[in-house]
Specification:
The chain is mainly α and about 250 residues long. Helix content is about 50%, strand content about 0%. Helix 9 packs across helix 12. The structure holds fe (ii) ion (FE2) (2 copies).
């Protein structure tokens, strides 16, 4: 017999303990699908409150996550919330070494920002929306486009369908019809080559030992990203709530 508790049992025990020790009930964010799969079903807030009548659901900062500054900057999100960012940093470094403009280096730096901080599915669309109020519209367009253009080769610039996609999605995978339709529209757009440029620097087989620091892009971010003075999430922009969702992903309401 194996008496080792499963991950799900340990998660339940941790939740019960938090409910007891902190009088805090923490639901799981639907944003983080991996955690959902790892930790099984949602805790039952009502049952936990019955066990510990003093317990309350999480409406403030999440004790499991590093505290964020009151007026968080893009760099703070990289530091405190975004998952391993090596791919983005290396992609941006690749673009910088190629002598690209601030706009395109920033586009490479942020192209997968949704994947590492928000939502994976349709990540190019989400990522573009997240940064729309703060960057040049060409950057937004290019990040949205990379989602689509990754699936389509362009011999004129030496871009081939990624080998990794054959492995990851299967050789018979075909993009969804909405991707196909977007591709047709994007192919003729004046900024097509900006979106394509991201795909050229969207490198997967980078040197795992090449360490790139965010600080190398402080100047580029300063010139090309309009940081709101109130902080991301608190500037009353149409996307502020999306940044707040990353600050407190498991807020009850
Ligand atoms: Fe991407
Ligand atoms: Fe990427």
């Amino acid at each position: 017999m194996n008496d080792t508790p499963t991950l799900s049992q340990r998660a339940d025990a941790l939740e019960e303990q938090m409910s007891r020790d902190l009088d805090l009930i923490v639901i799981r964010s639907r944003l983080y699908s991996l955690a959902e799969a790892d930790f099984g079903p949602q805790p039952n807030a009502n049952a936990l409150m019955t066990k510990n009548p003093k317990a309350r659901v999480l409406m403030g900062d999440d004790p499991r996550l590093p505290k964020m500054p009151d007026q968080p900057t893009l760099a703070d999100f990289f530091k405190y919330r975004f998952g391993p960012a090596a791919h983005l940093l290396q992609s941006a470094k690749h673009a910088l070494n190629a002598g690209l403009s601030d706009k395109m280096v920033l586009a490479c730096l942020l192209h997968d920002v949704a994947t590492i901080g928000f939502i994976r599915g349709d990540h190019g669309y989400w990522g573009a929306q997240l940064i729309e109020p703060y960057v040049d519209e060409e950057v937004v367009w290019a990040i949205r486009a990379h989602q689509v253009l990754r699936f389509y080769p362009d011999e004129s610039v030496g871009y081939e369908y990624p080998q990794s996609y054959i492995k990851t999605f299967g050789a018979d995978y075909r993009p969804d019809p909405y991707i196909e339709e977007d591709y047709k529209r994007m192919r003729d757009h004046k900024w097509y080559m900006s979106g394509r440029t991201i795909t050229l620097h969207d490198i997967y087989s980078f040197d795992p030992n090449a360490k790139v620091e965010l600080e190398e892009f402080t100047d580029v971010i300063g010139r090309a990203f309009k940081q709101p003075s109130q902080g991301l999430g608190f500037d009353n922009s149409p996307v502020a709530h999306m940044w707040r969702a990353m600050i407190r992903p498991a807020k009850y309401l």
